[in-house]
């Protein structure tokens, strides 16, 4: 599951989603258990789909779920989200947990905090923007020194031109000629007579 396809799939049906990071030791230890659970659930609970989200590759979802620790498990049923905290991370336990429907005892997320709500979606976009800026910063660190100088001079040049353009005074209008003054005076007196 990714930032791009999450909203196409997760709001519909039943999902057990694992959020993880490749560098996380606990995530790496849990990976074979989750794979075993997926195999077992495919037979015993075909209505439950299992998905994985790499939080490094999908910062928008990491922000939307407000991930505080890894790995994180979420049970989603038709858009209702439950966090499965404090649940043993073994395939056998999770399989029995799903079979006994113990997830029903977990309080669902409020509609306002759900990753499907507007606020967390905006937070997801902020996460994506932050990852994009971090990528640009990473690319910039690869540039030679002369490139930094060229970029700086270019930015300063654009700012200078913009400030000069914006600070140009308006062209003053010449004073009206005597004939124009008479026409204006006539219009003003005619306007007063009609009122």
From TrEMBL:
Annotated Gene Ontology cellular component terms: endoplasmic reticulum membrane
Pfam families per record: Thioredoxin
Chain residue ranges for the region called Disordered: 171-195
Domain Thioredoxin residue range list: 1-103
CDD domains referenced in this protein's UniProt entry, alphabetically: PDI_a_family (cd02961)
Keyword Zinc: no
This protein's UniProt keywords: Disulfide bond, Electron transport, Endoplasmic reticulum, Membrane, Phosphoprotein, Redox-active center, Signal, Transmembrane, Transmembrane helix, Transport
Keyword Disulfide bond: yes
Protein name, entry field: Thioredoxin- transmembrane protein 1
């Amino acid at each position: 599951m990714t930032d791009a396809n999450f909203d196409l799939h997760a709001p519909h049906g039943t999902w057990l989603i694992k959020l993880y990071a490749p560098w996380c030791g606990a995530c790496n230890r849990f990976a074979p258990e989750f794979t075993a659970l997926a195999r077992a659930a495919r037979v015993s609970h075909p209505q439950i789909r299992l998905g994985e989200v790499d939080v490094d590759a999908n910062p928008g979802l990491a922000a939307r779920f407000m991930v505080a620790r890894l790995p994180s498990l979420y049970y989603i049923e038709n858009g209702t989200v439950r966090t499965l905290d404090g649940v043993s991370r073994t395939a056998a336990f999770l399989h029995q947990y799903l079979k006994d429907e113990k997830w029903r005892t977990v309080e669902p997320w409020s509609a306002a905090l759900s990753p499907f709500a507007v606020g967390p979606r905006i937070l997801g976009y902020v996460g994506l923007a932050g990852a994009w800026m971090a990528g640009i910063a990473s690319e910039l660190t690869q540039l030679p020194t002369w490139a930094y100088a060229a970029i700086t001079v270019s930015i300063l040049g654009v700012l200078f031109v913009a400030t000069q353009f914006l600070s140009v005074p308006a062209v003053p209008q010449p004073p009206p000629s005597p004939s124009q003054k008479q026409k204006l005076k006539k219009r003003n007196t005619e306007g007063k007579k009609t009122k």
